[in-house]
Design brief:
Blueprint (H helix, E strand, L loop, with lengths): L2 H9 L7 E5 L5 H9 L4 E4 L2 H10 L5 E4 L8 H4 L3 E7 L2 H13 L4 E7 L12 H9 L9 E8 L7 H22 L6 E3 L6 H6 L4 E4 L1 H4 L5
Parallel strand pairs: 1-2, 1-8, 2-3, 3-4, 4-5, 5-6, 6-7
The protein binds pyridoxal-5'-phosphate.
The site of pyridoxal-5'-phosphate has 14 residues, from strand 8 and helix 9.
């Protein structure tokens, strides 16, 4: 299995205007270096420890996104390194990120994670909670944070029809909240993984997060 071949295959299915985050979690630095050598500069990690270690080992011009569930006690490791945190699933976490960004004298770019899937194990704001967040202009409470859009994960093992329906609902919610908040930087809709990114792109995703189709299966 050649990472560069996989990448070329994945890229051929992603239109310009949609960004690819290469999800490198649980894969070694050498695998990231191979994707880097094939031209990729944007990688996604899901654990603070792993992000810190890989950031130290790999070229400085890599852009790192954080995509995993984040505990508040790990925020200080992630905020200085991640150019976008996709997985903000509570006001509590957002407050911790904002405080940390203030301490570091920077602005943290974040997406609100939306719980649209059927599984109760998934995280995120329910659509109505996100509507309230926007209607009450709650982002104003977090001046060191820039709200860049929304992220979601579809239900695992759903039918294509169900996945499409979920992503379609997400796109509608994104359009609605974009209009409601009128923030110029509210531009990103992060949805789509290895098994469903084609559907996500059809339904209006702006960022896809792809691991397995590039790096192969993960060994947890
Ligand atoms: C692991 C992960 C991905 C990538 O999943 P693949 O199926 O390997 O493409 C995407 N998004 C999130 C939030 C993840 O945790």
């Amino acid at each position: 299995m050649d990472i560069c071949d996989n990448l070329q295959h994945v890229r051929s299915q992603i239109p310009s205007g949609v960004r690819l985050v290469c999800v490198s979690k649980f894969h070694p630095a050498e695998a990231i270096q191979a994707a880097y050598d094939c031209g990729e500069r944007l990688f996604g990690e899901s654990r603070a420890q792993e992000l810190t270690a890989k950031h130290a080992l790999l070229p400085a011009d890599i852009e790192w996104h954080f995509i995993g569930s984040l505990q508040t006690n790990k925020v200080k490791q992630v905020v200085p390194l991640a150019t976008l945190i996709h997985s903000v699933d509570s006001g509590h976490l957002l407050a911790a990120i904002d405080q940390c960004a203030a301490n570091n004298n920077l602005i943290a770019n974040i997406l609100l994670e939306i719980h649209i899937a059927q599984e109760t194990t998934k995280h995120g704001f329910l659509p109505d909670e996100a509507r309230t967040f926007i209607a009450e202009q709650r982002w104003l409470q977090y001046p060191h944070t820039r709200l860049c859009g929304l992220m979601t994960m579809g239900t695992a093992n759903a039918s294509e029809t169900e996945t499409r329906r979920e992503f379609h609902r997400m796109r509608s919610l994104f359009d609605e909240l974009k209009t409601a908040c009128a923030l110029p930087h509210f531009t990103e809709l992060s949805m789509g993984m290895s098994h469903d990114f084609r559907i996500a792109i059809d339904e209006g995703s702006t960022i896809v997060r792809i691991g397995t189709a590039i790096f192969g299966e993960r060994n947890y």
